[in-house]
Amino acid sequence: EEALAFPEIVGLSIGTRPDCLSAEILELLAHYARTHLVWLELGLQSAHDATLRRINRGHDVACFSRAVEEAAGRGLHLLAHVILGLPGEGRNQMLATADYLAVLPLEGVKIHLLYVIQGTPLERLYRCGEYQPLTEDDYVSLVVDFIERLPPQMVIHRLTGDPHPDELVAPTWCLNKKRVLAAIKDTFAVRPSYQGKLWQPQKKAHAKTPSTQSYGG
User: Fold this and answer.
1) pTM of the full predicted structure?
2) Quick check: 33 and 40 in contact, CB under 8 A?
3) Is residue 196 within 8 Å of 151, Cβ to Cβ?
4) CA-CA distance, 207 to 24, in Å (whole number)?
5) Which of 93-97, 130-134, 209-213 shows the lowest mean pLDDT across its residues?
6) Phi then psi for 20, rounded to 5 degrees?
7) CB 167 within 8 A of CB 118
8) Do 125 and 87 contact (CB within 8 A), yes or no?
């Protein structure tokens, strides 16, 4: 309320976990949304419970679905965060996450690359050869495939991450963000393709959790 009291402030962008939204918090955000723009950013990362357990997220996909359903219809602009290249996930699993998002009442998405940072459990996996980051070519192709499955009206807020160069272990190609963004744009042109090319409208915006039966733990 203190921030919104300034006339220069037109809105809020609030990032949180899907398991941190109570009815009271949603009511408060809806109150702010009556007079200001409010984006509510929720971290999903993956639409596969096996992956969420593997990375110790502490919530499941159903929790994310409930959070979105409870937040929808309150005047809030809903956005999901996803990460491509998570341990144990192949291309089909990552694209299934796009299909999952496509049927939820979301207005935006932020797509992140998983990169290895110093001093993390992921660095230990990388050092012992148990994790290999995506190559630049694979990431660019995957992002385009991902966006082809999203509704054309969904706003793409982010296409990659911004690691600190002093903390980054791998992949080093992600430090050249301009090149990555240009490659994504060029890939759309060369195919040719566009956002929503493979998206199929749903009669009812109700997302089912992708089956993880064949994905392993």
Assistant:
1) 0.90
2) no
3) yes
4) 25
5) 209-213
6) -115, 15
7) yes
8) yes
Expressed in angstroms, the distance from the first to the final Cα of the chain is 44
C-alpha to C-alpha distance for 71 and 203, rounded to whole angstroms: 20
Q: Which amino acid is located at 17 in the chain? A: R
Relative to beta strand 168-170, strand 11-16 is: unpaired
Question: CA 212 to CA 76: how far, in whole Å?
Answer: 30
Bigger pLDDT: 5 vs 78:
78
Q: What is the bridge-based pairing of β-strands 108-113 and 155-158?
A: parallel
CB 156 within 8 A of CB 147: yes
In single-letter form, the type of residue at position 93 comes to Q
Name all domains of the chain by residue range, CATH numbers in brackets: 11-190 (3.20.20.70)
Task: Label residue 92 exposed, middle or buried (CB < 10 Å: 0-12, 13-18, 19+).
Answer: exposed
Which residue has 């956005």 as its token pair?
Answer: 79
Q: What is the 3-state secondary structure (H, E, C) of the chain?
A: CCCCCCCCCCEEEEEECHHHCCHHHHHHHHHHHCCCEEEEEEEEECCCHHHHHHCCCCCCHHHHHHHHHHHCCCCCEEEEEEEECCCCCCHHHHHHHHHHHHCCCCCEEEEEECCEECCCHHHHHHHCCCCCCCCHHHHHHHHHHHHHCCCCCCEEEECCCCCCCCCEEECHHHHCHHHHHHHHHHHHHHCCCCCCCCCCCCCCCCCCCCCCCCCCC
Average pLDDT of the chain, as a whole number: 93
